[in-house]
């Protein structure tokens, strides 16, 4: 298992980063929150999890060991693969997920693209004894996200759909700007909409 990678950031993409390790560029798939902390040319250290499939080897990167462990624990639930687990961590921090599961908060899980009400209820049951109890270290902004989707989330999603985006595309765009929204004292939907549109235009 590759526990972590460390080295200068050689390239950044919307879905991941290339970390130069011993003269080799390692492609690491990261959530938007993790990518936001990386800067081209600067040294980075990412905890990693290698997902092995018959036709591929995919390396996922995380800001710390807690994120990596949560990513791996999430995949022990039926129907949760690496992409869904990564999406869950893109919307919620590990502690926010522990809080949501401990409270039986299905609404918080439905904020994740691809998880509906029935799937959320099933996940709450399966993850209850796997993620562990909350540590009490959840930041205020993540506690708010765990309680329910933030108002800006719904407003931004509605605005994107109104501009012609498919619901799934709109959710992906919302996830992409979540780190920026959480960094704002009061998320500005207009600013986030511009960022989301610019992000989607770059990836099309």
Structure report:
This is Holliday junction branch migration complex subunit RuvA. Keywords: ATP-binding, Cytoplasm, DNA damage, DNA recombination, DNA repair, DNA-binding, Helicase, Hydrolase, Nucleotide-binding. One of its GO terms (biological process) is DNA repair. With 204 residues, this protein is α+β, with helices and mostly antiparallel strands. It folds into three domains: 4-62, Nucleic acid-binding proteins (OB fold (Dihydrolipoamide Acetyltransferase, E2P), Beta Barrel), CATH 2.40.50.140; 66-144, 5' to 3' exonuclease, C-terminal subdomain (DNA polymerase, domain 1, Orthogonal Bundle); 151-203, Helicase, Ruva Protein, domain 3 (Orthogonal Bundle), CATH 1.10.8. It is 50% helix and 19% strand. The chain is built from ten helices and five strands; from the N terminus they run βββαββααααααααα. α2 packs across α3, α4 (94-103) packs across α7 and α9 (167-183) packs across α10. 35% of the residues are buried. The model is unreliable at 138-149 (pLDDT under 50).
Observed structural traits:
204 residues, alpha+beta, DNA polymerase, domain 1, 10 helices, 50% helix, globular, cytoplasm, four-way junction helicase activity, nucleotide-binding
What topology emerges from the helices and strands here?
Blueprint: E1 4-12, E2 16-21, E3 24-29, H1 32-35, E4 43-53, E5 56-62, H2 65-74, H3 82-91, H4 94-103, H5 106-109, H6 117-127, H7 140-147, H8 151-162, H9 167-183, H10 189-203
Antiparallel strand pairs: 1-2, 1-4, 2-3, 4-5
Helix pairs in contact: 2-3, 4-7, 8-9, 8-10, 9-10
């Amino acid at each position: 298992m590759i526990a972590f990678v460390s080295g200068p950031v050689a390239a950044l993409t919307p879905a991941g980063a290339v970390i130069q390790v011993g003269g080799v560029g390692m492609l690491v798939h990261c959530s938007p929150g993790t990518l936001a902390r990386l800067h081209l040319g600067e040294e980075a250290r990412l905890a990693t999890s290698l997902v092995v499939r018959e036709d591929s080897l995919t390396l996922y990167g995380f800001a710390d060991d807690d994120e990596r462990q949560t990513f791996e624990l999430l995949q022990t639930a039926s129907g949760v693969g690496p992409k869904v687990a990564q999406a869950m961590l893109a919307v919620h921090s590990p502690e926010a997920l522990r809080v949501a599961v401990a409270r039986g908060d299905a609404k918080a899980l439905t904020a994740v693209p691809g998880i509906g009400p029935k799937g959320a209820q099933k996940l709450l049951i399966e993850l209850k004894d796997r993620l562990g109890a909350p540590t009490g270290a959840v930041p205020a902004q993540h506690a708010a996200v765990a309680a329910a989707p933030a108002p800006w989330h719904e407003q931004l999603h509605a605005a994107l759909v109104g501009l012609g985006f498919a619901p799934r595309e709109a959710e992906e765009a919302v996830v992409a700007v979540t780190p920026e929204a959480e960094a704002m004292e009061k998320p500005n939907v207009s600013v986030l909409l511009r960022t989301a549109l610019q992000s989607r235009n770059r990836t099309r």
